[in-house]
């Protein structure tokens, strides 16, 4: 019966090995673990075959038996190494961390050698051939003890990883180890050994059954806690203990000295690797929390520190600083220059803040600071200090301030939002520094809501008719002989809740949100359609369409003009108005775009002339056909001789350049008479008509020209 048990066990182990080899080829995620299990079972199969030969041939215990026992012990011990590696790999894969590598395998070997070294110090190992057999037995027991410890500690540290089939695999490994202990410690063949052989057979069948289960596609995510670093420390301590113990009995403890030295060497390799990993982790942590360009804290780190500050129950302030017109720096000089400016700004800001403050770059041209222990007055002083620091490098900025008492329950996210609200209030009010208050918060919320509603109204996927909220009103342009020569298209938004909104209420929001191309397209297409109807009725008018300060450099402008031409409009009847600000944002690009506009046959008008900082050199180079004198000059020309002189000089300059002059903001006959005496070619203003919808404008036009009114 004993022989039958040995043969059956050997066949079961061999069959399990074949099944595991098949499973390893099908596995993707857990292939390294199954490879280690397969290697262990190959060794166990070899050991089982040797033991079967010993039993079947009745080899006696002496030298011949020892020759067969040595490879049996070595194979069983080596299988423990690979089982340890398989368990470590399995735990790491279940926790979805970096897979166990050769260094982790070395940790297990080192710990086993350390245990064996300590055992050799305290145990009485006979010399010679008998001592060799004892050494192999203790080495085998040491390997089993280490693997048992790894299983127990791993299961205790990661209970969620030991679930499902993982429990089955861990249980099978544990059973294999227990049966090996019984084999090693039981001595000659006894009832215990027979029971162990039966258990071996069942465990081999269990491993084979587990290998037939469907592979797990994706492991679950949990923080890795598998105790490999701790195991390396244990191996180092045990190895040192073995070396010290062997040193006290150097004549009789050669094996202990060898085991201990090897354990120390292997564990040291892992500890050196651990130090390197910790350094890499620290470097990665710093990279994850630091802005690459400026070296300051990044947004993630700032929010983490801000959240920590809110739970300290002490007063503090948050500053949010945004550079003015930074986009123009990137557009005109390139991103490399913009990056240099941001780096220089970061240095200035950091030098201007106290050492207790945290300065961060949130992204783009936004910087933020946390000032512990500082309330509103001190925060405003710090904000002005920051503005002075960046002014030294010819940079202007706006700063928003939000404060917390530490007991108001405000979250870090809410404080940052309040600082952002105050910063926009500072930009809009021109004060450069603003402290958050309820009024500013209300205005900010309204602005955000308006921006979202504007986005929805202009969304191409919105229901049909949504863009009908936008109306085009027209204001006539009248020549020196009182004839109507042109009309300017002006947008209005009939808001569902707020009523009719003027451009001042939403154009800057549209520009911030990047909606001007879509809005300009709606206005231009509708206005061109109205123009076609008027001209078909015999009214020889031209149409003026406004562009914003940023839209002139937008790549969608020229395609829109081409679309209008394809729609049938004569480009000679359209005037594209550009502002001085748009010309100076990026002069070279603006000049190139203006030339593209006129090359297509459109007329070009310089709007609001005199209100910006344009260069006369650019005025001379622009292919413009019209110049519009802003209402800030025309409305004061009667009362201020200096203003009148400026207007007269502007008219004369424009005529010398071959430009038509249109005076805006004309509201009374006296001003109109003065402007006409100065030589203004055309006028536009409330004296003639307010901006009105298309139908009202057509009625006004018919009444003025004597054409029949609409029925």
TrEMBL record:
CDD domains: EAL, GGDEF. GO terms for molecular function: cyclic-guanylate-specific phosphodiesterase activity. Residues 447-705 form the EAL domain. PROSITE patterns: EAL, GGDEF. Residues 314-438 form the GGDEF domain. It comes from the Bacteria. InterPro entries: Cyclic-di-GMP_PDE-like, EAL_dom, EAL_sf, GGDEF_dom, Nucleotide_cyclase, Rev_trsase/Diguanyl_cyclase. Keywords: Membrane, Transmembrane, Transmembrane helix. Pfam families: EAL (PF00563), GGDEF (PF00990). The chain crosses the membrane at residues 6-24, 36-58, 70-91, 103-123, 138-157, 169-186, 192-213, 225-250. The keyword Transmembrane applies. The keyword ATP-binding does not apply. This is Diguanylate cyclase (GGDEF)-like protein. It comes from Kineococcus aurantiacus.
């Amino acid at each position: 019966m004993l022989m039958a048990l040995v043969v059956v066990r050997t066949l079961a182990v061999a069959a399990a090995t074949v099944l595991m080899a098949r499973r390893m080829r099908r596995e993707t995620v857990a292939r390294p673990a199954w490879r280690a299990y397969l290697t262990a079972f190959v060794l166990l199969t070899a050991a089982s075959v040797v033991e079967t030969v010993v039993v079947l041939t009745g080899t006696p215990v002496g030298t011949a038996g020892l020759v067969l026992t040595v490879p049996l012990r070595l194979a069983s011990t080596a299988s423990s190494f690979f089982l340890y590696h398989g368990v470590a790999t399995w735990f790491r894969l279940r926790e979805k961390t970096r897979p166990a590598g050769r260094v982790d395998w070395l940790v297990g070997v080192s710990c086993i050698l350390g245990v064996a070294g300590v055992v050799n110090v305290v145990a009485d190992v006979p010399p010679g051939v008998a001592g060799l057999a004892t050494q192999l037995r203790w080495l085998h027991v040491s390997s089993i003890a280490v693997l048992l410890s790894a299983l127990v500690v791993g299961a205790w540290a990661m209970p969620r990883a030991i679930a499902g089939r993982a429990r089955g695999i861990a249980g099978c490994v544990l059973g294999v180890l227990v049966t090996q202990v019984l084999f090693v410690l039981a001595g000659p063949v006894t009832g215990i050994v027979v029971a162990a052989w039966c258990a071996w057979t069942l465990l081999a069948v269990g491993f084979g059954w587990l290998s037939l289960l469907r592979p797990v596609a994706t492991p679950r995510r949990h923080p890795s806690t598998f105790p490999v670093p701790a195991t390396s420390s244990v191996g180092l301590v045990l190895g040192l203990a073995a070396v010290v113990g062997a040193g006290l009995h150097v004549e009789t403890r050669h094996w202990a000295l060898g085991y201990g030295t090897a354990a120390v060497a292997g564990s040291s390799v892992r500890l050196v690797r651990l130090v390197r990993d910790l350094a890499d982790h620290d470097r990665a942590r710093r990279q994850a929390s630091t802005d690459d360009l400026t070296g300051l804290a990044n947004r993630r780190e700032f929010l983490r520190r801000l959240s920590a500050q809110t739970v300290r129950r002490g007063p503090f302030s948050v500053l949010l600083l945004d550079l003015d017109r930074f986009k123009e720096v990137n557009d005109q000089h390139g991103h490399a220059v913009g990056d240099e400016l941001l780096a220089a700004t970061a240095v200035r800001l950091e030098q201007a803040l106290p050492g207790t403050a945290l300065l961060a770059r949130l992204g783009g041209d936004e910087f933020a600071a946390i000032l512990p222990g500082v309330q509103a007055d001190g925060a405003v002083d710090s904000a002005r200090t920051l503005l002075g620091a960046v002014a030294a490098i010819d940079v202007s900025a706006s700063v928003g301030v939000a404060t917390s008492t530490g007991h108001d329950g405000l979250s870090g996210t809410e404080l940052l939002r309040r600082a952002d609200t105050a910063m926009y209030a500072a930009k809009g009010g021109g004060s450069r520094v603003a402290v958050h208050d309820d009024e500013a918060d209300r205005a900010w919320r309204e602005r955000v809501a308006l921006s979202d509603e504007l986005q929805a109204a202009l969304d191409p996927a919105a229901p049909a008719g949504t863009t009908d909220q936008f109306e085009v009103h027209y204001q006539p342009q009248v020549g020196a002989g009182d004839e109507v020569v042109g009309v300017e298209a002006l947008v209005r938004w009939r808001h569902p809740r707020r009523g009719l909104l003027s451009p001042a209420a939403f154009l800057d929001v549209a520009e911030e949100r990047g909606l001007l191309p879509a809005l300009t397209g709606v206005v231009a297409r509708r206005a061109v359609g109205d123009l076609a109807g008027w001209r078909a009725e015999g009214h020889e008018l031209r149409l003026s369409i406004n562009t914003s300060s940023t839209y002139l450099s937008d790549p969608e402008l020229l395609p829109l003009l081409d679309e209008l031409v394809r729609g049938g409009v004569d480009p000679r009847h359209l005037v594209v108005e550009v502002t001085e600000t748009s010309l100076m944002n990026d002069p070279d690009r603006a000049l190139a775009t203006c030339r593209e506009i006129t090359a297509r046959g459109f007329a070009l008008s310089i709007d609001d002339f005199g209100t910006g900082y344009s260069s006369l050199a650019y005025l001379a180079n622009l292919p413009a056909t019209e110049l519009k004198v802003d209402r800030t000059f025309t409305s004061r020309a009667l009362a201020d001789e200096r203003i009148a002189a400026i207007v007269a000089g502007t008219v004369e300059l424009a005529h010398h350049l071959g430009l038509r002059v249109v005076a805006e903001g004309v509201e009374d006959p006296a001003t109109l008479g003065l402007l006409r005496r100065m030589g203004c070619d055309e006028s536009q203003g409330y004296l003639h008509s307010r901006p009105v919808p298309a139908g009202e404008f057509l009625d006004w036009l018919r009444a003025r020209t004597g054409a029949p009114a609409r029925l």
